[in-house]
Amino acid sequence: MTLPNGVQKEIFWIKRDGDVWFQKNWEKMAKFLKFGYVVFFKYVGGSCFQLEILGLNSLEIDYSNIKFIDQVETNDNGAEFVEVSDDDIEMPKTKKSKRTRKGKGKGKGKISSNVGGMNPCFELTLTKTTAKGYLFRIPCKFSRRYMGDFEGIARIRSFGEKRIWKVTVKYDHELDYTLVNRGWKPFAEEYNLQTGDVCKFEMTRSGPISFTITINRVGE
């Protein structure tokens, strides 16, 4: 579950008599709800949902006080980054993926794969959710070939800049896809990403995994 302020929580559930019942960790989310609130669950792929909560006045509540998970360490501006030089960039080492499952979680919407040239790359056309910096999925074909079942911290930077931002990469073993969530929001806000923008992710390093992003603005 992801809230509009970027806060996330994993919720455990069971299926009973055809219905899905939330269990462990749902109580941590529910304590912020009051009788009469309306909660919208927006499906964003895999097992991920974005929540929007309307109060008794039919307006969205203030999410700023909802902080029930450990947040990524950031600087004073709320963004996490380090400085590197061009000498730190190296070509990625490609290797065969160790995955054995078939691709259940194929990329949807406007996500496409474009591997070619000197460095492997893919393109991501931003939806409303990805433009606001909540999360996005790396195309399965790309992640299987170049990332395997990698989980951890990856680095991204905008083309032509030295500032490096850290993002959290998670591999869903059950659905067989790779998700980027925490850390993407500060980057999206810094570069004012909009719905329809196309971001080209060029993999420039395999250890740690690093991407250079070229942003093509919608309408340009």
Structure write-up:
It is a single chain. The protein contains 4 helices and 13 strands. The longest helix has 7 residues, at 140-146. The strands form 3 sheets. Strands 5, 6, 7, 8, 9, 10, 11, 12 and 13 form a 9-stranded mixed β-sheet that branches. Strands 1-2 form a two-stranded antiparallel ribbon. A two-stranded antiparallel sheet has the order 3-4. It is mainly beta and 220 residues long. 10% of the residues lie in helices and 34% in strands. The chain has 2 domains: 13-65, no CATH class; 81-216, DNA-binding pseudobarrel domain (At1g16640 B3 domain). The chain has helices at 26-30, 128-131, 140-146, 184-190; strands at 13-16, 19-22, 38-45, 48-54, 81-83, 111-113, 121-125, 136-138, 152-158, 163-172, 177-180, 198-206, 209-216. It is globular.
Total domain modules: 2
Classify the helix fraction into a percent range: 10-25%
Strand content: 25-35%
Oligomer: single chain
Overall average pLDDT = 75
Tally the beta strands: 13
Overview features:
single chain; 220 residues; mainly beta; At1g16640 B3 domain; nine-stranded mixed β-sheet; two-stranded antiparallel ribbon; 4 helices
How do the helices and strands line up, and which of them pair or pack?
Elements: E1 13-16, E2 19-22, H1 26-30, E3 38-45, E4 48-54, E5 81-83, E6 111-113, E7 121-125, H2 128-131, E8 136-138, H3 140-146, E9 152-158, E10 163-172, E11 177-180, H4 184-190, E12 198-206, E13 209-216
